């Protein structure tokens, strides 16, 4: 496996780990906490870095189902992170308690992108 693809795969997996920890911890707690947003941030950072590495490895952004779902997933992750920061900053008890409902949706979309990437990677090996 070429180095860029390997680094990207490692970072995508770290993104999955960070984001999943943040999402599920928040879902179980039923209340958004600052460390959840930090885990979301780490997920966005590692996912966007991995996406850039993979685009560099491929040499272009390919327009296929995986890329479209991946970009939607990354966009939702960024929106989710920004919304989490706003909710934490405002401090509304109701918003902090309801935030987890959207989190699981975003995580599910992102997981579809992650798993389709695993499939693409395995089928190209």
Short recap of the structure:
The protein has 125 residues and is mostly helical.
Folded structure, characterized:
- This protein has five helices and no strands.
- The radius of gyration is 15 Å and the shape is elongated.
- It has helices spanning 3-29, 34-58, 65-90, 93-98, 100-123.
- Helix 1 runs antiparallel to helix 5, helix 2 runs antiparallel to helix 3 (65-90) and helix 3 (65-90) runs antiparallel to helix 5 (100-123).
- The longest helix has 27 residues, at 3-29.
- The chain has one domain.
- It is mostly helical and 125 residues long.
Topology:
Elements: H1 3-29, H2 34-58, H3 65-90, H4 93-98, H5 100-123
Helix pairs in contact: 1-2, 1-5, 2-3, 3-5
- SSE string, helices as H and strands as E: HHHHH
- Taken from the alpha-carbon principal axes, the silhouette is elongated
Number of discrete helical segments: 5
Number of strands: 0
Strand residues, percent: under 5%
Global Rg: 15 Å
Largest sheet: none
**Structural class of the secondary elements?**
mainly alpha
- The low-confidence runs, each spanning 5 or more residues with pLDDT under 50, are none
What share of the residues lie within helices? Answer: over 70%
| Terminal Cα span | 8 Å
Mean pLDDT: 92
Domains (count): 1
């Amino acid at each position: 496996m070429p180095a860029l693809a390997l680094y990207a795969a490692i970072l995508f997996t770290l993104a999955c780990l960070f984001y999943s920890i943040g999402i599920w911890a928040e879902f179980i707690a039923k209340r958004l906490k600052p460390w959840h947003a930090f885990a979301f941030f780490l997920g966005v950072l590692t996912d966007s870095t991995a996406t850039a590495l993979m685009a560099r490895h491929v040499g272009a952004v390919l327009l296929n189902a995986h890329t479209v779902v991946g970009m939607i997933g990354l966009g939702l992750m960024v929106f989710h992170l920004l919304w989490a920061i706003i909710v934490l900053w405002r401090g509304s008890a109701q918003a902090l308690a309801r935030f987890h409902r959207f989190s699981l949706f975003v995580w599910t979309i992102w997981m579809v992108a992650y798993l389709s990437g695993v499939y693409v990677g395995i089928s190209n090996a």
